[in-house]
Amino acid sequence: MHDIIIAILRSGTPLIYVTLAAVIAQRAGIWHLGLEGLMIVGACATILTIVATGSVFIALCVAIVLCVLMSILFWFVVEKLKANQIIAGLGLTGLGLGGTAFAVEAIFGTQAAVSAEFGLPRIGPMFGSYGVLSILVVLMPVCVIFMWVLLRRTRFGLRLAASGEHPFAARSVGVRTDLMRLAALMIGGVLCAIGGAELAAGSLQIFSQNMTAGRGFMAFTAAIFGAGQPIGATLAAVFFAVVGAAGIRAQLVFGDRVPHDLLLGLPYIATIFGIWLSAKLRGGTKAVTGFGELRDS
Amino acid sequence: MVDGDTIVLQCRDISVHYGDVVALSDLSVAFDRGKIHAVVGQNGAGKTTFARAVAGLVSAQNGQILIDGKAIPPGNVSGARQAGVELVHQSFALPPSFSVAETMQFGAQNRAVYSRKGLEKRWQKHLDALDVKVSAGQRIRDLPVETQQSVEIARALVTKARVLILDEPTAVLSPEGTAKLFERVRRLQEIGVTVILILHKIREVLAIADTVTVLRGGLLVEGPIDTSGIDAARLSELIIGPDLRVVDEDDRAALTGSAAVAHTTAMKEAADGPPVLDVRSLSTRVDPDGPALDTVDLTIAAGEIVGVAGVEGNGQRTLVRAISALADVSAGTIELDGVTMTDAAMKARRLAGLRVIPFERNVEGLSLSSTLWQNWSIRMLLERSILAFIQPAELRKRCNDALDIWDVRYDNVSQLAGSLSGGNAQKVILAREMDDQARLIIAAQPTRGLDIGATSFVWDSLRKAKHRGCGILFISSDLDEIMDVCDRVVVMLSGRIVEAFEPPYDLKKIGAAMTGLSK
Predict the structure, then answer these.
(1) B216 neighbourhood in chain A, CB within 8 Å
(2) Beta strands in chain A (DSSP E)
(3) Which residue of B has its CA nearest to A164?
(4) How far A173 CA lies from chain B's nearest CA (Å)?
(5) C-beta atoms of B105 and A169 within 8 A
(6) Which of A36, A39, A147, B345 is deepest in the core (most CB within 10 A)?
(7) A179 contacts in B (CB within 8 Å)?
(8) ipTM beyond 0.85?
(9) CA-CA distance, A85 to A164, in Å (whole number)?
(10) What part of B 348-407 touches A (C-beta under 8 Å)?
(11) Which residue in the set B44, B89, B106 is minimally distant from A162, CB to CB?
């Protein structure tokens, strides 16, 4: 039983961090499909910096700075250059996936996985078998609650939500919607960096190409599933993690009778089911991104 | 210059352009403190732009706006709000998923972090103090428009507002709601708030305002003038200007809302035979566009214009959708020209002569990214087999002829519909929908957003169709227009037809029926 919970926490924590990034972006009115790219950059930067400097702290800082810079780039492209959010987001993902592969190839001359000698600090043997979990797993619930307070119980959160739902209303009370979006994306960048760091250095201490394996898109889905609410989206992410862990368990148990590929696809089938369910319950989520209202009728 | 102490808001030479379009040019005007000011003008006169420029939502290309003698930075909402300027929008700027309390909070300055209970308690006090009857925990999307407006006014008063601008606040209100709003405005005046009302009805201006300022085509015509020194006729002249079009007296009164409401032109040309439209005990399921219809009875004879009055959102859209085969009918029948069409598809109904001028010109009426000839000829596609060939060259030519007859101003039929102005776009729809085979024409808000010339063109067209023997269902939220054009008026409230009126109309009675007070 314990090993299942540990497996869920390990696979779920990176996903939850990135889900929170998806939530804050969605509330600000941005369909953020660049999460995958930010996450893998966070993962890659963490491992490479640990290898280069031997400091986990510096590694986290580098990952965060890189992801925030990429988020600012994304903001500039969609907000200032008015590029299509979906295309720009997919571009960001491509940049992350390709850029990290290129970086590894350029530094080590091979595309093989890079492993670090150590990863993030663990919580220690005093927690028994849970001691193998990293400190970011413990930090995760704190972060979820912090995001809930920030988005649901502060004026900043209200203004952010207004910028996404009704930009004209936000501008009518003097809110700079472009800056709110910048703030949302930068906070999202930090969260993606942490999620990527946890993925690469939380348990495995390894970076391999495309190791995020669609988690950024899953996080995007969880945010929609949770209707843009931090708690709801986190629960959706936990649901995906549970389904994923169950899929692995199912491979061990039924692997000889049920096709392997079908079991691997279980989380994705659950994702599709989740989207359908959330659309059915709410009639779909809406994010207004209108700039055309300022015309005299 | 006027004595600086009494002036609260002064505009000096403000000009605003949107691209090539000049919305305001060199407007200089000053408003006295503690009074109720009206700003009037036709559509496109620059009223809304003026309001938004003062509130900092649009940036004036040149000129200065001074509050209490101090210039506020242009295009800066926070700066304008700090100076005490608040704007209530025509279509309210409230995020629909927010609760009332959250709406108040997000524009306020105090307490960055809150608890939900504390928040609702705090703002409930504010709402109670302003006598807005709403619970702070309710969501905006669940509120009726009149309450939304009160909430937005309360929202505007969370800070120390000294100048409150209301942009066409009466457009969404019933006469009853308007009276309540005016009471509220007077109370605000008593506590020292200067109120600027953007209006377009002369009757309302004379009822509430101390001064009136007239804009036309982005220019100041006159003002502020004391309302005690001006009458409706003179004011309507200022608003319309030296328009060369000869406008019928009743039309003129309806256009400016200055009518003493004596309608003389309404008369039926009733013909024999079955009614063009016969709706009996029609009920529908709940519709995404409004409340369900509840046992609606409605007949329209050939050569008759029947108006549907009502506050928006009381089932007018559902009625149109039911007649055009879009809503789910649960009971009752619809007959067109004596033929039962309750379950018939739109194709059969169109072939029977149903034509629709829809509510949303740019969404339902036209495909803005298609060409004029495509938009114009789309209805013919229904009349033929789905596999029939089309000949674009011939359609273009026929479209060309039709649009010329309807006096559409355009370059060529291959230009996109989105490039036309509102009035011309509406004429394209008229050219398509008001052909010779039309029997029943549904005109849903056909004049909304049009200027005076285009508005009277639409009315003329409808009257011509009526003389040809068409039945017309005319839906509008403008009572003056309805009373001028229609031979009979029915009032919708919550999906039901609650009362019917024949000329001569009594504005008060219709208004009472709209709000459910007459029963």
Answers:
(1) none
(2) 114-115, 206-207
(3) B95
(4) 5
(5) no
(6) A39
(7) none
(8) no
(9) 13
(10) none
(11) B106
Angle between helices B145-156 and B116-129 (to 10 degrees): 100
Instruction: List the single best residue of A171, A296, A297 to mutate versus B (max B Cβ within 10 A).
Output: A296
**Is A296 in Cβ contact with B46 (below 8 Å)?**
yes
Q: What is the maximum alpha-carbon separation in chain A?
A: 68
Q: Please name which of A281, A77, A273 lies closest in space to residue A181, comparing C-alpha atoms.
A: A77
Contact (CB<8Å) A155/B105: yes
Largest CA distance in chain B: 76
Tell me how far apart the alpha carbons of residues A258 and A268 are, in angstroms, rounded to a whole number. 17
| Residues of A in Cβ contact (< 8 Å) with B58 | 294
Window 59-78 of B, Cβ < 8 Å to A: 76-78
Mutation target vs A (from B103, B106, B116, B172; most A CBs, 10 A cutoff)? B106
CA of residue B389 relative to chain centroid, distance: 41
Residues of A in contact with B77 (CB under 8 A): 171-174
The SS3 call for residue A258 is coil
Per-residue pLDDT of chain B (519 residues; tens, 9 = 90+): 444 578 999 999 999 887 777 788 899 999 999 999 999 887 778 888 899 999 999 888 888 999 988 898 888 899 999 999 999 987 778 888 899 999 999 888 877 888 989 999 999 999 998 888 899 999 888 887 778 888 998 998 888 889 999 988 887 777 778 888 999 999 999 988 999 999 877 888 888 999 999 998 888 988 789 988 888 888 878 887 765 455 566 676 666 665 544 454 545 555 567 899 999 999 998 777 678 898 999 999 999 999 999 887 788 989 999 999 888 899 999 999 889 999 888 888 998 999 999 988 888 889 888 899 999 988 887 777 778 888 889 999 999 999 988 888 888 889 888 888 777 888 899 999 988 889 999 999 898 777 777 888 899 999 999 999 999 999 988 888 898 899 999 999 888 999 999 888 888 888 888 877 765
Residue intervals in chain B for CATH 3.40.50.300: 1-84+162-172+185-243, 262-353+437-519
Query: What residues pair up with B11 in beta bridges, in sequence order?
Result: B29, B65
Residue in A closest to B119 by C-alpha? A153
Helix (H) or strand (E) holding B67: strand B62-67
Question: Residues 145-204, chain A: which have Cβ within 8 Å of B?
Answer: 149, 153-156, 158-159, 161-162, 165-166, 168-175
Q: How far apart are CA A163 and CA A180, in angstroms?
A: 7
Nearest to A227 by CA among A165, A182, A141: A165
How close, in Å, is residue B18 to chain A by CA atoms?
8
Q: For residue A291, give both structure tokens.
A: 């700039």
| A189 Cα to chain B: minimum distance (Å) | 24
Provide the CATH topology of domain A2-282: ABC transporter involved in vitamin B12 uptake, BtuC (1.10.3470)
* Check whether domain B262-353+437-519 has CATH 1.10.3080.10, yes or no: no
* Residue B256 forms contact with A (CB below 8 Å): no
Alpha-carbon distance A119 to B94, whole Å?
A: 48
Cβ contact A158–B105 (<8 Å)? yes
- CATH number for B1-84+162-172+185-243 (one of 3.40.1130.10, 3.40.50.300, 3.40.470.10, 3.30.420.10): it is 3.40.50.300
Cβ-defined contact of A171 to B57 (cutoff 8 Å): yes
- Token readout for A288 is 């207004």
Q: Does A38 reach chain B within 8 Å, measured CB to CB? A: no
Q: Look at strands B471-475 and B305-309 and give their pairing.
A: parallel
Q: Are strands B440-444 and B471-475 parallel, antiparallel or unpaired?
A: parallel
A237 close contact with B: CB closer than 8 A: no
Length of chain A: 297
